[in-house]
Amino acid sequence: MLIAIRREPRPERRVAVTPRGVKALTDAGHDVAVPSGAGDGAAIPDDAFTAAGARIAEPGDPDLLLGVGPLTADDTSGASAVLGFLDPLGSPHQIERLAAAGTTALALEMVPRTTQAQAMDALSSQATALGYAGALLAATELPRFFPMMMTAAGTIAPARVLVLGAGVAGLQAIATARRLGAVVAAYDIRPAAREQVESLGADFVGGPVADEAQMEGGYAREVSEETRRQQQQALAEAVAAADAVITTAAVPGRRAPVLVSLGMVDTMKPGALVIDLAAATGGNCEVTSPGTTVERNGVRVMGPLHLVSTVAGHASDMLGRNITALVTHLWESGELDTSTEIGAAVCVARGGEITSDAVRSALEAGG
Ligand code: NAD
What we know:
Blueprint: E1 2-5, H1 19-27, E2 31-34, H2 46-51, E3 55-56, E4 64-66, E5 81-84, H3 92-100, E6 104-107, H4 122-141, E7 149-151, E8 154-156, E9 160-164, H5 168-179, E10 183-187, H6 193-199, E11 203-204, H7 225-241, E12 244-247, H8 262-265, E13 273-276, E14 293-296, E15 299-302, H9 312-330, H10 341-346, E16 347-350, E17 353-354, H11 357-364
Parallel strand pairs: 1-2, 1-4, 2-3, 4-5, 5-6, 9-10, 9-12, 10-11, 12-13, 13-15
Antiparallel strand pairs: 6-16, 7-8, 14-15, 16-17
Helix pairs in contact: 1-9, 4-5, 4-9
The structure holds nicotinamide-adenine-dinucleotide (NAD).
Nicotinamide-adenine-dinucleotide binds at residues 113, 118, 121, 123-124, 127, 165-170, 188-190, 193, 218-220, 223, 231, 248-252, 257, 259.
């Protein structure tokens, strides 16, 4: 089939598939079209795509369009099927539009968290890149060193980093901050996170943990107002002591939980930072303004929206592997097969209909 790779509009710098993935697709007999410059943001020249067997060409009307996204019906006209981040639970109306246009919609967000689907888990690979980039941003923005240093000019105390939400992004932020020598503490609502945090050499901050907070697949549920109050009480001291707070807490299909209140930001030291990696879904800090930096009494609250693009090369490589593994699985028989567990989960629109209960529920909930 004709597979086209999208040239993402800036500020996105990732590309959905890198030459390694293109080679896998052309070896499998597909015709792959890559628009000129599609890899520029990730430092991949057109030549590298042609060497992998692609044609440098505009997408035309492909059988399958591969993009980073979030892709909407406006981005995909002419394609029979589209695969990428489609934000199916956050923007279910876009899925409705894709269905109305007769486009088959395959959403990376819906890849199940099973052993078989691990190679296709793009949320995890991109969260890894995000956590890494978040810790580096904290290290470069903080007007202090991360590591302890004993120098002729005196002994420098290590930076104190607090990571809130210890899923894939949070664990990578912890590991990266630790490698840079910071003293790290972390918190997550899921009790299973404690052991993972401690195995990375960070302290687990006491706070409410709840077995029922964990759903199938490892994701968290929304917590009650009472739990939220308890969390803020338990975290207050750790936030006040931190030089940098990196927040990553998320609940699929919901607004990000607010863990750091305005009052808590006002207890932080001048020069301290909040790096809110959940800014795209509203943010974990009450002060966060997505896409900008807010300064309050010398404390900066940053809500970056395109941080993964700072590591676009490796992030694209990982994403490309996830996408090609998924395409290989879905088209194993030569035709698109959405009857497998993975196929049924990722296919959110086909044959003019929305085919996902989760998307239908999101629409009914007014999403
Ligand atoms: P996510 O991005 O949806 O959320 C990030 C973190 O925020 C999660 O750890 C969550 O527990 C936490 N969180 C949510 N609400 C919170 C609150 N009110 N207070 C504090 N923390 C809160 O999650 P994720 O990083 O994509 O994954 C979470 C889990 O899924 C991890 O345990 C991970 O190991 C598991 N996982 C499993 C597989 C697999 O089995 N194949 C793959 C990837 C991840």
